[in-house]
Design a protein that fits this description.
The complex is a heterodimer of chains A (125) and B (244). The model of chain A has no long low-confidence stretch (mean pLDDT 86). Chain A has one domain: Helix Hairpins (Orthogonal Bundle), CATH 1.10.287.3510. The longest helix of chain A is centred in the C-terminal third of the chain and has 32 residues. Chain A has five helices and no strands. By secondary structure, chain B is mainly alpha-helical. Chain B has one domain. Chain B has a two-stranded antiparallel sheet with strand order 1-2. The two termini of chain B are 46 Å apart. At the A-B interface, helix 1, helix 2 and helix 4 of A face helix 1, helix 3, helix 4, helix 5 and helix 12 of B.
């Protein structure tokens, strides 16, 4: 019983991580189960979002402020970790770029084949 | 049946992820290994070393300048990919779904967009130019700029945006990001220092801070304008429909 409460405590402390895992799994389900290519790509974007949430959460500090040094702020523990945020900024831009390229390919595919259904596209050959 | 199997497999994967996350260090404690390595140095000396009160701007433009330069090249390459697949829009041959639509656009939407777009652009410029001092920066401001162009296109039609943002200007602005990095970075090379150093040694030390600020500002403006124009160009390339 004691072990179980300890486990739940650990889970509750890492609540953001659990949400990130859930989002990842939702995205994975969308990628596997849906046959529409745009929906598949939406799933991929959900996976990306979950990874962003996970990495930004790993830099969080309880009661931490945004790392902008101004007047009257000196204690170093008062700020959250800036490195994950800088990394995720890169990640968001790359996610946007891949989305743009994928969507343009889908537009061309729809013009040529008239469908975005992955199962039907497989039969076209 | 197929769905059930997928849900079961995905649930097993979720259990695996969660069981791994239980053993991670507790979130939000300052004793995290991620927090104890290089972060104290960034937080204590970042303002003097990187030249920006916003530590994140200092990291992405100075400590990790090469990374950001690659990132800017990535969005330019993405634009190239989109244009290679879809091609540029041309008012002689293309129109858009918005222009073809027979539904009258709502007066309320038109009024609100017309009133708000100048302020949206002003806000984007504030975000870009004030990125070193407050939350914000080039990418964020660029996204807002691009969004304002998209809002204009969706309410007032495709042809207006294409006429207001002619191709000959857009081709220059799209490459503003890498260009800003090139201009600011090469100055260090000419002074015998490394690429992206942001220092001109022959200037008096009192002005060194100002110069670094200006060079960072050039990069921020380049990223913001370049990012905004790239978003607008991608949107216009996707929005166009061939004329019959």
């Amino acid at each position: 019983m004691n072990d179980l409460t300890e486990l739940f405590n650990k889970l509750f402390v890492n609540f953001n991580y659990i949400v990130a895992a859930t989002l990842f799994v939702i995205g994975l389900y969308t990628v596997i189960a849906k046959s529409n290519l745009i929906k598949k790509f939406m799933g991929l974007n959900i996976i990306e979002t979950s990874v962003f949430l996970f990495i930004v959460s790993s830099g969080a500090i309880v009661g931490g402020k945004a790392p902008i040094i101004g007047e009257g702020v000196s204690s170093k523990t008062a700020f959250v970790n800036p490195i994950p945020q800088a990394l995720i900024l890169t990640g968001i831009v790359v996610a946007m770029s891949t989305t743009a390229v994928a969507l343009s390919l889908m537009i061309k595919l729809y013009e040529q084949c008239g469908t975005l259904n992955a199962d039907k596209l497989k039969e076209l050959k | 049946m197929k769905k059930g199997i997928i849900i079961f497999a995905v649930f097993l994967f979720w259990l695996l992820l969660v069981s791994a996350m239980v053993s991670l260090p507790p979130m939000g404690s300052p004793e995290n290994p991620a927090y104890s390595h290089i972060v104290p140095r960034y937080l204590e000396e970042g303002v003097e070393e990187a030249g920006a009160h916003n530590i994140i701007t200092g990291i992405i433009l100075n400590y990790r300048g090469y990374d950001t330069m690659g990132e800017v090249t990535v969005i330019l390459t993405a634009l190239m990919g989109v244009l290679a697949v879809l091609g540029r829009e041309n008012l002689l041959h293309h129109t858009s779904k918005v222009d073809e639509s027979t539904i009258e656009r709502s007066v309320i939407v038109k009024c609100v967009v017309r009133l708000l777009v100048p302020f949206i652009i002003l806000f984007a410029l504030y975000i870009i130019l004030h990125g070193a001092e407050s939350p914000g920066g080039g990418f964020q401001g660029g996204a807002i700029l691009g969004a304002s162009v998209i809002a204009l296109t969706l309410t007032f039609g495709f042809s207006l945006t294409v006429k207001k943002l002619p191709l000959k200007y857009r081709t220059v602005f799209e490459s503003a990001g890498p260009l800003g990095f090139f201009i600011s970075g090469v100055i260090g090379l000419f002074c015998g220092l490394n690429f992206l150093t942001y220092i001109i040694p022959s200037v008096a030390p009192a002005y060194q801070d100002l110069i670094r600020h200006l060079l960072l500002l050039i990069i921020e403006i380049g990223i913001g304008v370049g990012g905004g124009t790239i978003i607008a160009s991608v949107f216009l390339a996707m929005e166009k429909v061939g004329k019959e």
